Amino acid sequence: MIGILGSGFGLYGYLPASVSLEMGSVLLPSRYQKVFSIREELQPFLKKIEWLDSDLDLIKTATTLIISRRPGDQSQLIDTVLAQPNIKNIIFEKPFSINPGMAKIMQDKILNSQKICSVSYIFRYFPWAITLKDHLVRNPEFEQESLKLTWRFMAHHYNNNLLNWKRDHEQGGGVLRFYGIHIIALLAEWGYNQVEKSNFFLNSDGVSYSRWSALFKGINLPNFEIDIDIKSVETLFNVKRFLQAEYIYQGSDPFDEQGSKNENISTDLRCNYLRTLLLENNSQIEVWPHRYVQAINLWDKVENDINQKKLIAVN
Predict the structure, then answer these.
(1) Along the chain (315 residues), what's the average pLDDT of each consecutive run of 10 residues?
(2) d(Cα 105, Cα 97) in Å, to the nearest integer?
(3) By residue range, what is the domain housing residue 130?
(4) Most exposed: 102, 186, 204, 258, by fewest CB within 10 Å?
(5) CA 233 – CA 2 distance, rounded (Å)
(6) Phi and psi of 249, rounded to 5°?
């Protein structure tokens, strides 16, 4: 049975994705009932939910557990969760942990537990990412290319002046740990293992990084530059190849493709990809796929650089 811990994205993202698998009732803590009741788009799933008295009751009942909580909370839960013999599979929402050091500690515990675990780096399922990976793997001439990924938008916490954890780098938020981690995971999976340069822009609030630019390199891979600005008046997402002077992908955001907008299980565009993640986790043989080890290692290299470069953003 699938159980979900997390009353935010756990409900409006993972719940519809889990129900779509038709694997029986989905377990939720009773304390989520009030939040559930005010979200109209979730009401069709009511009959598919089994409400349990407490989080611990859920942890002791589920065979597949989805943890969609703040990264610090996920770190605190891991010992309890890994100790439960009933739990066979675990999916962690990203950021996996607050920082790469804590992520490595969690990684070691997972490897020792022999439970099947995944992290929701769902960009790897997006059509543009699949196309780009295909170019990198199948086209030898791509090694001579130079690529740049640009992502600009106004994050919800800036647009609404919210002082929440998603804004705070120290709690696992900000441009790098909450947004950039998706790109780090992709690059690590594709073989990038060097951080040639990296610049971070500290926002005027003193707790959040609002912009990050970096250059990554890997063996037999083209240089890959990224520029992510989460406090921008522009809204765009693109991947450009410079030698051919063309865009591999160009849209308003990472989800701006037919594969995202045709989903039919929820209004949230990420649900199709979460469903894919759940199916993959269910059939996964490796306890902890090597791509997660690579992602943490590359993240650690980026974090080593952030301690040396703290630039004040002009925005």
Answers:
(1) 97 96 95 97 96 98 98 96 98 96 97 96 96 89 91 96 93 96 98 94 84 96 97 96 90 74 59 95 96 97 70 48
(2) 10
(3) 123-312
(4) 258
(5) 40
(6) -150, 140
Hey, CA dihedral for 62, 77, 265, 130, is it positive or negative?
negative
pTM of the model: 0.93
132: left (phi over 0), alpha (psi -120 to 50) or beta: alpha
For the chain, strand residue ranges (E) read 2-5, 26-29, 49-52, 64-67, 89-92, 116-119, 146-154, 194-202, 209-217, 223-229, 231-241, 246-251, 311-312
DSSP H helices, 83-215, are 100-113, 127-138, 156-159, 174, 181-190
Distances (CA, A) of 157 to 67, 123, 137: 22, 22, 37
Strands 223-229 and 231-241: unpaired
Of 106, 122, 138, at which residue does a domain stop? 122
Please state whether beta strands 2-5 and 64-67 pair in parallel, antiparallel, or not at all (unpaired).
Answer: parallel
Instruction: Quickly tell me which residue has 């607050």 as its tokens.
Output: 98
Based on the fold, state whether residues 281 and 200 are members of the same structural domain.
Answer: yes
| Token digits of residue 204 | 């005027």
